[in-house]
Design goal:
The complex is a heterodimer of chains A (579) and B (120). Chain A is of the alpha+beta class. Chain A has 11 helices and 17 strands. Chain B is built from 5 helices and 5 strands, in the order βαβαβαβαβα. The radius of gyration of chain B is 13 Å and the shape is globular. The chains are: A alpha+beta (579), B alpha/beta (120).
Chain lengths: 579, 120
């Protein structure tokens, strides 16, 4: 927007400047032409007025010749008869012919008749005496050598310039000898020039060339004309132009400054033309400016559009870049997660592997320990005292517990990896009890606990399932019961709570489990005292966790009933047609 | 033919010797060898009634030996029990073998297996 406004101002200023320059130069050129034209027109009109003046002079000459070439006048000069004067030189003759003075002279230049009439009043006035000095021998006024000669011209008299026509008085036929001279005169007074103006349609005025004080324009014209003569033109103001010229007398000296004024039509026309030109210029400039402005606006719109498009494109590519970055980040996160998952899986696999190795490496020496101990116990190396036998029993029992621990570790690893293999075979519940009892009886005996067992008669002799896992469940429940019971009885019962289920029930007379701990005891590595164990042997807290997980895996369910101080009962229930 | 032979292939000398002694205690004639590489040939030569075969062996694994035995028509019917501390045994191995004994085991467990496989 700022760009647009600035550009607009610059273009407008440029246009204004060019219009001004064109206007000024055109004004100069055009107006000079018009001024020339005007000057030529003024000159022509000045010449026309001069011509009209001459025509006036000719008219006087012609009319007056009618009187000078006339027998009556011829006779009058000689006889001086009054009737001629009375009949012909009336005041009306003067006014009719618009002349001021009539003069008759003899050949000797003696005045025969003289009369002057004021044309304004139409009455006779005093004859201008100043004319006489020009009526002497040798004066050009009376230089009329023959009958056909005539002198027409202007004289500068003190009263004013006078146009006069001097002619010899001859007979009506124009024959001589010349009998005197007749001079008609007309003052070139304001009235004369008014008449001249009326006939020429110009405003014609005149001032005496020898006047002491003149209007300013006449003064300038006089100076100018005095130097170079001819015609001087001068614009008075915007409306009027004036043309000046000198009018010479009979002696050839300037006597009048003639001035015509006329309206400056040409100049006005020129002004108007320049005005129209200016209007045309300005109009076309404005149109041009509007056009340029439109183009500028269009260009700017295009530019803005391009900018906008560019901006949007940039934004889009930025958004795209962000999106790509986000995608890359997400991919990275996914990759990281995948890596983390892989690492976790690898760690899990490694844990299982380590536990399997631990299990394997523990089992190998246990094999020797147990076989050799049994051989000892069975008297393979000689008879055993009851005390020795008891010690060997203790060793075997502890080996069994260690084995159970190793098994629990392995099972925990298998459960974490969800890769526990299950058997699905027939087994005898009685045998199951036998095998577990072999391991736990010595433990119970050492704590002087009685260990009782029973199998509900409704329980089938053969069940299907994973006897190894069931043995593990039972062993863990019994080990747990023996561990937390100080005195009393631990009983194991295999029962059939309904038609479709069988269960293992292990009861003890131990310290019992508080209500708030009853759910938590099934969590791995949790012990009743609430501490997370650091030991990795007895009381690691794996037993009940594994029991529950295995029970679930075998399609069973474990429940606990306990009254603190009165013991606890764990019941694991399985469907009869177990998997 | 005299008493049936039980061939023990076990690289751990403590277990090997213990096992032979337990079998002697059980009145079973047993021979023990610890090299996997010569085990197959020993089976061919001695024609035992039962082979107690460990899995992790130097020279050749117990599984390879089992395959060799099963592949040789002369001895393919030999009873073979895998005796191992490896708790993870594949179903395939369990199917190929006639019995499995997980270490550690009791004398009674060993006796039950041996009696079962020796058919007495």
């Amino acid at each position: 927007m700022i760009f647009r406004r600035r550009t607009f101002i610059i273009s407008v200023l440029t246009l204004l400047a060019s219009v001004s320059i064109i206007y000024i130069s055109s004004h100069l050129i055009l107006m000079r032409s018009f001024a020339d034209l005007e000057e030529r027109d003024v000159r022509a009109n000045v010449l026309r007025v001069v011509k009209a003046l001459n025509i006036q002079l000719d008219t006087i000459s012609t009319i007056s010749s009618g009187y000078s070439m006339w027998d009556d006048a011829y006779r009058f000069v000689s006889e001086r008869n009054q009737d001629f004067i009375d009949l012909n030189m009336m005041d009306t003759t003067f006014t009719d012919y618009q002349i001021n003075t009539v003069l008759y002279l003899t050949n000797d230049l003696e005045v025969v008749f003289e009369k002057a009439v004021d044309l304004n009043t139409g009455e006779e006035m005093a004859f201008p005496q100043s004319l006489y000095p020009f009526l002497t021998e040798g004066s050009p006024v009376v230089d009329l050598p023959d009958t056909e000669s005539a002198v027409n011209g202007i004289l500068g008299l003190p009263q004013g310039a006078m146009m006069l026509s001097a002619q010899p008085v001859v007979t009506s036929e124009g024959h001589g000898p010349i009998n005197g001279y007749q001079i008609w005169g007309r003052f070139l007074d304001p009235q004369f020039f008014e008449q001249l103006s009326a006939t020429t349609d110009f405003s014609v005025t005149a001032q005496r060339f020898d006047a002491l004080a003149l209007p300013v324009d006449f003064e300038r014209a006089r100076d100018n004309l005095r130097k170079s003569g001819g015609i001087f033109t001068h614009a008075v103001n915007e409306e009027i132009v004036a043309g000046y010229t000198l009018v010479n007398d009979l002696y050839g000296d300037p006597v009048l400054i003639l001035r015509i004024t006329l309206p400056r039509e040409i100049y006005a026309q020129g002004e108007a033309s320049v005005g129209y030109f200016l209007i045309a210029m300005v109009s076309s400039s404005v149109i041009l400016a509007i056009f340029a402005q439109s183009r500028l606006a269009l260009e700017e719109i295009n530019l803005n559009l391009e900018k906008h498009v560019e901006q949007r494109t940039t934004q889009l590519s930025q958004a795209n870049a962000l999106l790509l970055q986000e995608i890359a980040e997400r991919k990275q996160i996914e990759a990281d997660l995948e890596q983390t998952r892989d690492k976790a899986l690898e760690a899990l696999r490694l844990k299982s592997q380590i536990l399997a190795n631990v299990s394997h490496d523990a089992r190998t020496p246990l094999t020797t320990i147990m076989l050799r101990t049994e051989l000892l116990q069975r008297g393979r190396y000689g008879p055993m005292s009851p005390e020795q036998h008891q010690v060997l029993e203790l060793i075997l029992s502890n080996a069994g517990q260690l084995l159970n621990f190793v098994n629990n570790l392995l099972t925990e690893a298998q459960l974490s990896g969800q890769s526990i293999p299950l058997a699905h075979v027939e087994f005898s519940p009685s045998s199951l009890l036998d095998e577990v009892f072999d391991l736990v009886v010595p433990m119970a005996e050492r704590k002087q606990l009685s260990l009782v067992r029973s199998i509900d008669s409704r329980v089938p002799d053969t069940l299907r399932g994973d006897p190894g896992r069931l043995q593990q469940i039972l062993l863990n429940l019994l080990e747990n019961a023996i561990r937390f019971t100080e005195r009393g009885t631990i009983s194991v019962m295999i029962e059939r709570p309904d038609e479709t289920h069988w269960c293992i029930r292990v009861s003890d007379t131990g310290r019992g489990i508080p209500k708030d701990a009853q759910n938590r005891i099934f969590e791995a590595f949790w012990q009743l005292d609430g501490s997370i164990t650091r030991e990795v042997n007895r009381g690691v807290g794996l037993g009940l966790s594994i029991v529950r997980q295995l029970a679930t895996l075998l399609g069973g369910e474990i429940t606990l009933e306990s009254v603190p101080g009165q013991g606890a009962t764990f019941t694991v229930t399985f469907p009869l047609n177990a998997k | 033919m005299g008493r049936p032979l039980v061939l023990v292939i076990e690289d751990d000398p403590d277990i090997g010797s213990s096992l032979v002694e337990v079998l002697a205690y059980l009145d079973v004639y047993a021979e023990w060898m610890s090299d996997g590489a010569t085990a197959y040939q020993a089976v061919v030569d001695k024609r035992p009634a039962l082979v107690l075969l460990d899995i992790h062996l130097p020279g050749k694994s117990g599984l390879e030996i089992l395959d060799e035995i099963r592949a040789d028509p002369r001895i393919a019917n030999t009873r073979v029990a895998m005796v191992t501390a490896d708790a993870y045994l594949s179903k395939e191995i369990k199917q190929k073998a006639d019995g499995v004994l997980l270490k550690p085991y009791t004398i009674d467990q060993l006796n039950a297996l041996a009696m079962h496989l020796l058919g007495s």
